[in-house]
Design goal:
- Chain A: Its main location: nucleus.
- The complex is a heterodimer.
- Chain A is mainly α.
- Chain A is built from 8 helices and 5 strands.
- A 3-stranded antiparallel beta sheet of chain A has the order 4-1-5. Chain A has a two-stranded antiparallel sheet with strand order 2-3.
- The longest helix of chain A is centred in the middle third of the chain and has 23 residues.
- Chain B is built from 7 helices and 3 strands.
- In chain B, strands 2-1-3 form a 3-stranded antiparallel beta sheet, with helices on one face.
- In chain B, helix 4 runs antiparallel to helix 5 and helix 5 runs parallel beside helix 7.
- Chain B starts with 7 loop residues before the first helix and ends in an 8-residue tail after the last helix.
- Classes of the chains: A mainly alpha, B mainly alpha.
- Chains A and B meet through helix 1, helix 4, helix 5, helix 7 and helix 8 of A and helix 5 and helix 7 of B.
């Protein structure tokens, strides 16, 4: 393949962040402007006290120029994250469901728009805890019976970002296991792309 | 683990020597034994690279016993503690223990084949958790500090064979990429 090796395994976290910036978010503009037509749609009008819906990348760009205040999504509040964390801890078997771009959006908002969030530092540590609990579960999952038999890993509710970290290792490991599986019949086709894909 | 025609790893794995004995006399190939004799005699033992031994054995010109890296002694050691067996030393060169074993299994009959593959698979599965922990640990570790080589993880790392080392590198790399993403402050481009 023509792609450099580090891009062959799938999307990188940076690329996922780029995709996440397509999500829309509410902002309170600090300037007045009529509607603007962008490739992805028409946004505005921007009239200061009322909120407008724009893509995240636009919100971040305006925020960096101090031209808006970002209204954090409702799932990014101390309460909601605390609930998720509690649910995650209580439920040892599976992952709790998070918005698809949860990690990416929360990270860029904490990076760029810290002052628009309530208690950013405790939010940050809650997110870190949440991540660690989920990572621990992934680790246990990797040593579970399903993986050991080379057949499957339970990844329901994992976000694409977490999967991107896990995938290269898992694909290669399962490729090796599949090739070591005792042959049933003389069908050479059973070796699917697994091993090749990881190379 | 691909057996692609162009896979260098496969070629290297096939190049290990296997001790075979001929089942018939062969004229003019005495130099394979390294001696001055002109012919190879029946039952004489010759070390042949696997790619040659494979064809000869499939045509029943030669037979070979299971080579020492897959003997019962190794099997017993793997059963006792899979993680402390140094697979890297068992097969020469880069130590493609799994690959070579799999190629040998291809030549064997049904029962010993399943037996050998089961041994390989079990060894891999039992070593996987340690491998995963180690790669995750190395991905998150601070590499500016000098590395201590006393922990059990390090001795396991010395014993990894070729494919395990590749897997380790892959796990470490993806862990590193994520870690650097989490640590970055998102100030690219900026204002």
């Amino acid at each position: 393949m023509a792609l450099p090796k580090h891009l062959q395994n799938g999307l990188t976290p940076d690329e996922l962040t780029f995709l996440a910036e397509e999500e829309t978010i509410d902002i309170v503009p600090l300037f007045s402007m009529t509607r603007v037509r962008l490739l992805s749609g028409i946004y505005g009008p921007f009239t200061p006290p009322s909120a407008a819906k724009v893509p995240l990348w636009l919100a971040l760009s305006l925020k960096r120029k101090r031209k808006c205040r970002i209204v954090p999504p409702e799932w990014l509040s101390i309460d909601r994250v605390q609930n998720s964390l509690k649910e995650e801890r209580e439920n040892a078997e599976s992952f709790c469901s998070l918005p698809r771009r949860f990690i990416e959006i929360s990270k860029v908002l904490l990076d760029v728009a810290q002052d628009d969030l309530m208690q950013p530092s405790s939010l940050r540590s809650l997110l870190k805890d949440l991540r660690e609990v989920r990572q621990a579960k992934i680790r246990i999952g990797l040593q579970s019976e399903g993986v050991m038999r080379g057949s499957y890993l339970q990844v329901t509710n994992l976000t694409p970002l977490e999967l991107s970290e896990l995938k290269p290792f898992l694909v290669k490991a399962m490729g090796i296991m599949q090739s070591l599986e005792p042959r049933k019949e003389e069908d050479e086709d059973e070796e699917e792309g697994g091993g090749n894909y990881a190379q | 683990m691909d057996d692609d025609y162009y896979s260098l790893n496969s070629i290297l794995a096939e190049n290990h020597k296997l001790s075979c004995s001929f089942t018939l006399d062969v004229e003019g190939l005495g130099y394979l034994e390294g001696g001055t004799e002109n012919n190879i005699h029946q039952h004489s033992k010759v070390e042949l690279p696997f790619w040659l031994a494979q064809t000869l054995s499939l045509n029943e010109f030669t037979t070979f016993p299971l080579p020492p890296p897959y003997s019962n002694r190794v099997k017993a050691a793997l059963n006792a503690s899979a993680q402390s067996v140094k697979l890297s030393n068992l097969v020469g060169g880069n130590g493609w223990w799994y690959r070579w074993g799999r190629r040998i299994a291809d030549v064997l009959d049904d029962e010993p084949q399943a037996d050998l593959l089961n041994t390989l698979l079990k060894a891999f599965v039992n070593r996987l958790p340690a491998l995963q922990d180690l790669s995750a640990h190395h991905a998150s570790a601070d590499h500016t500090l000098p590395e201590g080589s006393t922990s059990t993880g390090e001795t396991f790392r010395d014993g990894m064979e070729g494919d395990e080392r590749e897997l380790f590198a892959i796990g470490q790399e993806s862990g590193k990429v994520s870690k650097s993403w989490y640590d970055s402050s998102g100030r690219k481009g900026g204002r």
